[in-house]
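Researcher: Going back to the complex we discussed earlier. I've cleaned up the inputs and rechecked each line, so this should be the final set. Can you rerun the prediction on the complete assembly and write out the structure?
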Amino acid sequence: QQQVKQSPQSLIVQKGGIPIINCAYENTAFDYFPWYQQFPGKGPALLIAIRPDVSEKKEGRFTISFNKSAKQFSLHIMDSQPGDSATYFCAASNQAGTALIFGKGTTLSVSS
Amino acid sequence: GAVVSQHPSWVICKSGTSVKIECRSLDFQATTMFWYRQFPKQSLMLMATSNEGSKATYEQGVEKDKFLINHASLTLSTLTVTSAHPEDSSFYICSAKNRGLYEQYFGPGTRLTVT
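Model: Rerun complete. Updated structure for the full complex:
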């Protein structure tokens, strides 16, 4: 009930490609869905987040698509660059004061 | 804005000693702080949640007497690993948020190695 399932585990794209990372959840009480980017040896950085009242949110080259009925959300990275190579985590929470439930992460490699 | 710092960034200690890790929110009031542990190539594992001025709430399986958490002010939380053993070696990351807000910001992490 509390899980957030993330796929794929790893992803390789060429520069300029559009990698897509997917997450699915079961708990319908979740109402906040952020994505984090983590480089090796560093803490996760908040990239973009969405609430269930919208189906899409864009910030720069990053877009979240949200499908409430399917209980799925995804991250799209437009015009991917080698500097985007990192591990990406989706997460969810159901109240402003509670901890995030994280997916297992996706390691993205963008080749030049 | 929304910067969280951790100190130290890495520490090596001998088995049986204690280590304190500090987590500070630099430009906002952190009413809630979270402590995570991360093993190589794995996701973040929540250890405990601390609200300013209250006792920390530990996740199942986390020894509260071994991982002492103090959140005495709105900008500082500390994690003390007591009587550290090699199996405690890991990457410890804190995060912080303000009351009523969803956004959670992470520190840069602390690499602990116990020899």
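Model: Worth noting: DSSP finds no helices and eleven strands in chain A.
Researcher: Good, that matches what I expected from the previous run.
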